[in-house]
Amino acid sequence: MQTLTVNLGERSYPIYIGAGLLAQAELFKRHLAGRQVAIVTNETVAPLYLDSLIASLSGCEITSVVLPDGESFKNWETLQLIFDGMLSARHDRRTTVVALGGGVVGDMAGFAAACYQRGVDFIQVPTTLLSQVDSSVGGKTGINHPLGKNMVGAFYQPKAVVIDTSVLNTLPARELSAGLAEVIKYGLICDKPFLGWLEQNMVALRGLDMPLLAQAIERSCAAKARVVGVDERESGLRATLNLGHTFGHAIETHMGYGVWLHGEAVGAGTAMALEMSTRLGWITAQERDRGLRLLIQAGLPVIPPEEMSQENFLEHMAVDKKVLDGRLRLVLLRRMGEAVVTDEFPREVLDATLNADYRALVARLES
Amino acid sequence: MQTLTVNLGERSYPIYIGAGLLAQAELFKRHLAGRQVAIVTNETVAPLYLDSLIASLSGCEITSVVLPDGESFKNWETLQLIFDGMLSARHDRRTTVVALGGGVVGDMAGFAAACYQRGVDFIQVPTTLLSQVDSSVGGKTGINHPLGKNMVGAFYQPKAVVIDTSVLNTLPARELSAGLAEVIKYGLICDKPFLGWLEQNMVALRGLDMPLLAQAIERSCAAKARVVGVDERESGLRATLNLGHTFGHAIETHMGYGVWLHGEAVGAGTAMALEMSTRLGWITAQERDRGLRLLIQAGLPVIPPEEMSQENFLEHMAVDKKVLDGRLRLVLLRRMGEAVVTDEFPREVLDATLNADYRALVARLES
After folding, report:
1. Interval B7-46: pLDDT, tens
2. Domain identity same for A218 and A286
3. Which domain holds residue B287?
4. Which residue among the candidates A71, A175, A182, A275 is catalytic per the annotation?
5. Do A27 and A83 share a domain, yes or no?
C-alpha cells in the first residue's frame, strides 16, 4: 500500500492506494468519528462491493443508500434519497458518509456530507479509474443543473481516500478509457516525462496490468494532491486541472448528461485544447498530434459531436465556472507539460478551433 | 450607525446597525467583489424595499429573484429558483448574493451562495426583528427537510450584515413578537441584566420605539457575535443559542412549517425549557415565572399546541442536530443568565416537562 497526503493544514488527509484495501477494516475505522456510517453507492457497484465494505465496517450502525447509476441522475432528486435515508435512520452529526462508486457517487455523497446537518465527515472509496485519479481527491463535490454541469456544490474535503486498485478488474473498458483521459491530462499540464511513460505502457494499462495501473494512479494522485495543496478553492493553479473540461462540459450538457461519459467528453475537449494551443503557436502540430495519438491509443474520442455547432459550444461555455466579468477563460497548453488559464486569445482562434475539421486531423494521423 | 464585528480571522465581517442604511450605497459597494449582484427577496418584502436596494446598487448588473413568502417554502424547490435566476443571467464566481428579507430568505439565499458554483459572496440585509437579532449573524444557512428543520445546509459566513432598523416600521406585530423571543433568549442564556432592561422597556419596544429597538438589536447582535467568534461550527458554546429551539423545532415540524412562526415556537419552547430547568431544581419557580411573564409581555405563546402528545415531541426531537450517539441533548438554564447543553437529566423530568400543564401555569401567573 502507498500513502500520499493532501496537505491542507488541519484539513489534511491521506490517500491510500493498493490492492484489496476494501477488506482492510482498520483503514476505515481509524477515520470514523462515531459509530454511524452511511454508505452511498449505486445499483451497479452495490452488487459487486457493498457486502465487502459492510464487512469491513462490522460493529458500525450502517445505513446503505443505493442510487440509480449515471450522470443523468446527478441531481437534487437523487441527492434527496441520501438525506431521506440518513434522516430516517436518525444519523447525527458524528456520522460518516462513505462514497462507494465512481465520480457521480463521490460528488453526490460528498455534497450530501457537506450539507447534512451543515456538515458531517466523509470518506471516498472510488471504484472507477476516473474517480481514483481525479474526482475523489481535492474536495470538489456537487450536482448538475439543467443549465450547467457541477453548478451547485461545495468545496468539502474527505477525511480519507481509499483506492482499492483490485476493483478495476470489474470496470468496463469504456470506463477505463474515460479514466485514462484524466491520467493523460496530468502529463499534458504538468508532467511531460509522464507522457513518454504513458506512450510506452498504454497497451498494458488497457490490458489491466495492475502494478502499472497502480503506478499511474499514484503519479496522478500525487499531481492532484500537489495542486490542491497549493490552491484548494481554485483561485489560480487548480483551474489548470480543467484542461479540456470547458469544451468537454459543453459536450456533456448539450448531448444530455450521461450520453457521453465525462472522460470521453474530456478526451474530445482535450483534443480541442491541443488544437487551439497549436493555432495560437504555443505548441507545434507535431506536439498536438502526439497528444491526439495518446488519446486515441487510450480508446478515447477526439472528434467533437458533429451535431454541435459553434453557437452550441459558445452558449454552454458562457456559464462555465471559469468565466469572469463576462470573459471566457480557457485552460490551454503554453507548451507541452505546462498549462495556463487565460482569456488572452483572439476570438477568431476560438472560432476556428470550434470549426476545425477534427475528422481530417485524425484521418491524417492514421494514414 | 453602530458597527460590530464578528471575529473569525480572515472570515471576519462587520454588522452595521442604524436607521436608513438601505439607502447608503457605499455600505454595500465596499463589499462587492465584482459587478454582478443577485438580490434574493420575497413577494412581501419586494414591494416595500426592493427598489430602494436596487437604487443603492446602481451601476451593478442586478438580477432579482422574488421567492414566495413563508417557512413552508424553505425547501429545495424554492432554492432552485435562485440557481435558475443566477444561471440564466450568467452570474459568475465573482457575483454577490444579497439576502433582502427575514430568516427564511436569509437562510436560503445564504445556502444558495454557499452552493452556487461551490461558493460565492453574500450580504445579509435582514428585514425582520428575528433575522436582525439572530439568523442573519453567524453563517448558519440551509433549508428544511420533511423530517426535520434546517437539516440540509452549510456554515457559510456573509461578507457583511446591514441592519436597517427603519424597516421595522412595516413589520407586522406578530413578527415583531416572534423576534422578541430571540431577544429574550440572550437575556436568559448569557445576559441576566438584559432581562431587567427588557422588563422595563417591553411596552416601548412593542410600540416601535426606534432608539430602544436599535439598542436591543445591538445588544443581541453583540452577544451572538461573541458566541459565534468562540464557536463558529457549534462544537460547544454556540449550541446554547438554541434555548427553546429543540422543543420549538418539534412544534414547527409537527404543526407544518409556517403554521407557527419560528419565534412563536421558540417562545413556547423557551417556556418548556424554563419549566424543565425548574423541575431539575436549577432555577426557582419564581425565576421561571419571571421568564414566562416576559415572554407573555412580548406577545408570545407559552403554551405548546394541545394536540401534541409526548410521543409527538419525542419523535421530532430524536432527529435534532444536537442528538449524539442516540442521546438527546437539551439547552437548559443552569441558573438565570447561564445556559448549558446537557444530556444529564432523568428521563422522567423530560417526560414531566412534556406533560406539564402550561395552561394552569399561565393562569396562575395572570391571577
Report:
1. 999 999 999 999 999 999 999 999 999 999 999 999 999 9
2. yes
3. 173-366
4. A182
5. yes
Does residue B64 contact residue B42 with C-beta atoms inside 8 Å?
no
CA distances from A131 to A126, A163, A313 (A): 5, 9, 26
The pTM assigned to this predicted structure is: 0.93
* CATH code assigned at A187: 1.20.1090.10
Shared-domain flag, residues A205 and A179: yes
Closest CA to B25 of B58, B47, B49: B58
Cα(B292)–Cα(B298) distance, integer angstroms: 10
Decide which of A130, A146, A170 is a domain's last residue.
A170
Contact state of A324 with B153 under an 8 Å Cβ cutoff: no
Using a CB-CB cut-off of 8 Å, the residues of chain A touching B324 are 34, 92-94
The kind and range of the H/E element at B217 are helix B210-230
The distance from CA A286 to its chain's CA centroid, rounded to whole angstroms, is 28
How many distinct helices (H) and strands (E) make up chain B?
A: 14, 11
Cβ under 8 Å to A: B residues 138-177: 140-142, 145, 147-148, 150-155
CATH of the domain at B165: 3.40.50.1970
Last residue of a domain, one of B109, B136, B170: B170
Q: Is B115 on the interface with A (CB under 8 A)?
A: yes
Q: Are residues A177 and A52 in the same domain?
A: no
Question: What confidence score (pLDDT) does residue B206 get?
Answer: 97
State which residue of chain B sits closest to A232, comparing Cα positions.
B118
pLDDT band at B85; cut points 50, 70, 90: very high
Residues B206 and B138 both lie in one domain: no
Q: Does residue A307 sit in the same domain as residue A329?
A: yes
The reply to whether A140 and A152 lie within a common domain is yes
Tell me, rounded to whole angstroms, the distance of Cα A116 from its chain centroid: 23
Q: How many helices (H) and strands (E) does chain A have?
A: 14, 11
Please state, as a whole number, how many other Cβ atoms lie within 10 Å of the Cβ of residue B6: 24
Amino acid occupying residue A333: L
Contact in structure between A23 and A8 (CB atoms under 8 Å)? no
- The structural domain count of chain A equals 2
Q: Which residues pair with A327 in a beta bridge?
A: A324
For residues B202 and B97, state if they share a domain.
no
In chain A, which residues have their Cβ closer than 8 Å to the Cβ of B87? 145, 147-148, 151, 319
Among B196, B300, B192, B198, residue whose Cα is nearest residue B244: B300
